[in-house]
C-alpha cells in the first residue's frame, strides 16, 4: 500500500470502500498548492511568506510566486546539476558546501539575484561526491537564466528567471485563488 495519503485514498476508492466523490474547487486549489509546496520542499509558513511577497511585487502574482520559488538557492543548486533532487540540494546547502559570490551560505531559502556566482567551497572539492559529480555533470544543459562553467564547477545567474524559464508546470493561478478566498 502506498505511503502517500492521496494515493491511499485513491486506492481505497478503487477497492470499493467508498464512493468516489467529485473534488470541490477548494480541494483542487489546495491540492495544487500542496503539489508546489512539496515539489519545492517549502513549509506552509515559508510558502505563505513567499506568496505575500509575490502579491506585493508588481506584475502577475502567480508568475511572481513561481519566480521567487525558482530563485531559492537549493533550487538553483538543483537546476545547475549539483544535486539529483531538491532535497539533496537542500542538504548540500545546509552542510555548507556552497559559496555564493565567494561567501559560504547555508540557508536553502536564500534568494539568488542576477549576477550571483554559485560555486563549491574549496574543502568540499575533495569529497568523493564532488569527484563523481565532476564526471556526471559534463555536457549538462542548464536553463536559460543560468550558466555553468564545467571546469571551475561554478554557476552564474545571468538574469532573474522569467515565466517561460520555469520547467515545473503548475496551475499557479489556483494557488492565488486559494489564498484569496
Portion in strands: 5-15%
Structural class: alpha+beta
Q: What's the oligomerization state?
A: single chain
**CATH classification class of the largest domain:** Alpha Beta
Radius of gyration: 19 Å
- How do the strands of the widest beta sheet line up side by side? 2-1-3-5-4
Considering the protein shown, what is the CATH homologous superfamily of the largest domain? RNA-binding S4 domain
Give the CA-based shape. globular
List the domain count as a whole number.
2
Q: How many beta-strand runs?
A: 5
CATH topology name of the largest domain, in short, is Structural Genomics Hypothetical 15.5 Kd Protein In mrcA-pckA Intergenic Region, Chain A
* Gap from first CA to last CA: 35 Å
Name of the CATH architecture of the largest domain:
Roll
Elements, N to C (H/E): HHHHHHEEEHEEH
Low-confidence stretches: none
- Major sheet: 5 strands, antiparallel
> What number is the mean pLDDT?
88
The portion of residues assigned to helices is: 40-55%
